[in-house]
Write a structure and sequence with these properties.
By secondary structure, the chain is an alpha+beta fold. Helix content is 42%, strand content 15%.
């Protein structure tokens, strides 16, 4: 477990070795996730990978999600 002090204005410094390990560069956007267990800091890329993993569960093999969405919207429009 790593501990860091919160400085003036709520700032927290991410140590260089952790930034390097997780590919966080100066100027990068990071995300904070609030949960019942506390705050979780992620690089933007890690957050995107997590979201993609969740979305992949809904992917249908051989079906374009975009084509399916367009088809559904056309059907809705035809019913109106």
């Amino acid at each position: 477990m790593l501990q860091f002090k919160v400085s003036e204005g709520g700032r927290v410094v991410i140590p260089a070795e952790l930034r390097a390990k997780h590919g966080i560069q100066v100027g990068d956007t990071v995300t904070w996730r609030d949960s019942a267990d506390g705050l979780m800091l992620s690089s933007r890329q890690a957050a995107i990978r997590r979201i993609q993993a969740v979305a992949a569960k809904f992917k249908k093999p051989g079906v374009s999600v975009v084509d399916e969405f367009i088809r559904e919207k056309r059907e809705e429009a035809a019913r109106e």
